Amino acid sequence: MPIMPWSDMLSVGVASIDQQHRILVGILNELGDSMEAGIGTWDESVAMTRLVDYTESHFAFEEALMRRVGYADLDAHEQEHRLLFQQVADLMARSTSGERLGTQALLVFLRDWLTSHIMGTDRALGLSLNRVGMR
Ligand SMILES: [Fe+2]
Known about the structure:
Blueprint: H1 15-36, H2 46-69, H3 74-96, H4 103-131
This protein binds fe (ii) ion.
């Protein structure tokens, strides 16, 4: 059972963003599967590295889009993106310095963050992009 099954509730109404979110959710589920199978620790896992890299490029995509349309809530949205990276970097630093952090706690943190960000902040962006004709 994937940790975050995709559902249409996660759609923000803009195809390019939805497609990237599906990929992100897919990588998160892969990370969940590999942790469940007991393949190494999350802070050294290939899926975790891919998740961080893909998240970085996805955030850059959204931020460029927001700039292009002069999105009013750009600063707050970017701030949320930055905060996630700080939180993940902090978790990784704590883990590499020897603290034992449960993989389940990390997966739940990422799933909950992604769900609330997509359904709140990104949904608002999607609506605004719809208003300028983007689907
Ligand atoms: Fe976002």
